[in-house]
């Protein structure tokens, strides 16, 4: 096909795309076939190059392809961000709507942690009611101030590998806390309670051993996301358990379905928080090169941010106003 015939055949399509791309803003409804037209122009550019058409034509098509690529993926990016914002808003709304379950889960976690923490700090034998001597020795090794990296033993593993390990570990705890709700909530209570006791035992033991200088800077950063997420997963499990014990005017299956629909919103947000926690733990918390004051300060700010985001941010109001 001659260049003149090629241009004549597709000129209308190129002019249409040029009008859309040069106008700026969103693609109007008549051009919802924009992705398909963009792919056609990509093919035209390839053909023009293969047939050695004029530089003017190749440059025109190349410009269309570049602008189209930017518009197409910019639109996809905006849509993804919008969906993420909507999901986070639904999560925040669910957390506040189900605050009684969140409070119950928090008490199940925090109170045992405080009791065990104080007891383990006052008496080493108290810590051994949860920790074995081997676990205690491993903890001392993990938080030795002389280590290059703090936290779980990693041998030659990279931070990225540890990121994957932390995700697997965190998601495992979250799933147990949530799934335990099907056992009339008793499984959830057991998981949240044990994790609170274990955290308290570790905290009290390491404080008594004089390793708080490495332990607290390590845990405070990712703890804001991880511990809050565990509590929220526990709240989701308690919702499931309560719907089975007290279905109200609904049949148990229907009550369970309704509770699960709300609990899943909590789990989505909590899972996202656990991914963030794993990232912070692998790439920030484990570093022994950062000053203690910096890690404590950043950790405190992260705690304030998480609490503000879950309980005081305006995301819920924006979502309900739509």
TrEMBL record:
It holds the Pfam family SpoIIM. It comes from the Bacteria. The chain crosses the membrane at residues 101-122, 173-198, 205-221, 227-245, 266-284, 296-315. The keyword Membrane applies. The keyword Transmembrane applies. Keywords: Membrane, Transmembrane, Transmembrane helix. This is Stage II sporulation protein M. It comes from Marinobacterium weihaiense.
């Amino acid at each position: 096909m001659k260049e003149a015939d090629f241009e004549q055949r597709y000129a209308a399509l190129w002019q249409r795309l040029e009008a859309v791309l040069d106008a700026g803003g969103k693609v109007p409804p008549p051009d919802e076939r924009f992705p398909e037209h963009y792919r056609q122009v990509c093919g035209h550019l390839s053909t023009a190059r293969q047939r050695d058409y004029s530089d003017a034509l190749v440059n025109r098509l190349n410009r269309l392809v570049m602008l189209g690529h930017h518009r197409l993926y910019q639109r996809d990016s905006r849509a993804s961000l919008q969906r993420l914002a909507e999901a986070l808003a639904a999560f925040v709304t669910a957390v506040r709507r189900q605050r009684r379950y969140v409070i119950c889960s928090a008490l199940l976690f925090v109170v045992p942690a405080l009791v065990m923490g104080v007891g383990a700090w006052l008496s080493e034998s108290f810590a051994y009611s949860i920790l074995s001597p081997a676990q205690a020795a491993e903890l001392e090794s993990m938080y030795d101030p002389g280590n290059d990296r703090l936290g779980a033993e990693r041998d030659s593993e990279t931070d990225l590998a540890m990121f994957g390990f932390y995700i697997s570990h965190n998601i495992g705890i979250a799933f147990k806390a949530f799934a335990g709700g099907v056992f009339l909530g008793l499984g959830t209570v057991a998981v949240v309670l044990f994790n609170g006791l274990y955290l308290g035992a570790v905290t009290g033991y390491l404080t008594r051993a004089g390793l708080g200088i490495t332990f607290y800077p390590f845990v405070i950063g990712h703890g804001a996301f991880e511990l809050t997420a565990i509590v929220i997963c526990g709240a989701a499990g308690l919702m499931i358990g309560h719907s089975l014990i007290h279905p109200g005017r609904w049949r148990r299956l229907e009550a369970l379905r309704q509770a699960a629909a709300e609990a899943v919103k909590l789990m989505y947000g909590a899972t996202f928080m656990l991914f963030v926690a794993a990232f912070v733990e692998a790439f920030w918390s484990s570093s022994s090169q950062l000053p203690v004051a910096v890690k404590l300060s950043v950790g405190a700010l992260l705690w304030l941010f998480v609490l503000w985001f879950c309980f005081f941010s305006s995301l819920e109001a924006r979502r309900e106003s739509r």
